[in-house]
Amino acid sequence: MRIDILTVVPELLASPLNESILKRAQEKGLVEIHIHNIRDYTEDKHRTTDDYPFGGEAGMVMKIEPIYRCIEALKAEREYDEVIYTSPDGIRYDQHEANRLSTLDNLIILCGHYKGIDYRIREHLVTREISIGDYVLTGGELAACIIADSVIRIIPGAIGDEASALTDCFQDNLLAPPVYTRRVQRLESARRAPLGQFRPNRPLEGGAGLGAHQTAAARFAERRIRLTICVTT
């Protein structure tokens, strides 16, 4: 897989895309990540990538010309399965979309900035718009990192134990059950139940508005279990 990320602040992407699982996946040759500074595709001495919006509204808008040149230069070298734009009005990103993207070969991720991009880019160049949630970020760089991380970690070989990735939260719309370390010396509860009974028989259902920690807390509160775990040091 190859992922090309287009941005006006490439420095924001250097660290998160070159550590941990993402670093190892690149070293194994499973994925290539290339960062492109949109300013390199400008033609003025100030390397301008933004302009005032038509109509005189507040804020700045990313210009179409440098983005067009960058995308066209990449497309001249290879075909791309998706040109993704990180947008607040895109589809809500989830595990199913990450799974789908992980099966593709070449992706472009365009990071929005300022008040957004010239809409003609979205009309003629972008094939997929993705939102990571209903809140505002300074730019799309962090969203691009989230997309890249969630996609790369499920590529076969990226994680040492592939079964671990397949049992992550939100695979099949389920949350993973509570987990414990192995070195438990003593477990006390109101029911004196074995440790295995504290793991639900099935994962918790997600998507009902509660986060994983909230759903798990609600389950334990309902069962009225009080745990005291002594860990061997």
In short:
By secondary structure, the protein is α/β, with parallel strands linked by helices. The protein contains eight helices and eleven strands. A five-stranded parallel β-sheet has the order 2-1-6-5-7, with helices on both faces. The protein has a two-stranded antiparallel sheet with strand order 3-4. It has a two-stranded antiparallel ribbon with strand order 8-10.
Explain how this protein is built.
This protein has 233 residues and is an alpha/beta fold. It is 29% helix and 21% strand. It has 8 helices and 11 strands. The chain has a 5-stranded parallel sheet, with helices on both faces. Strands 3-4 form a two-stranded antiparallel sheet. It has a two-stranded antiparallel sheet with strand order 8-10. Helix 4 packs across helix 6. The chain starts with a strand and ends with a strand. Residues 220-233 have low confidence and may be disordered.
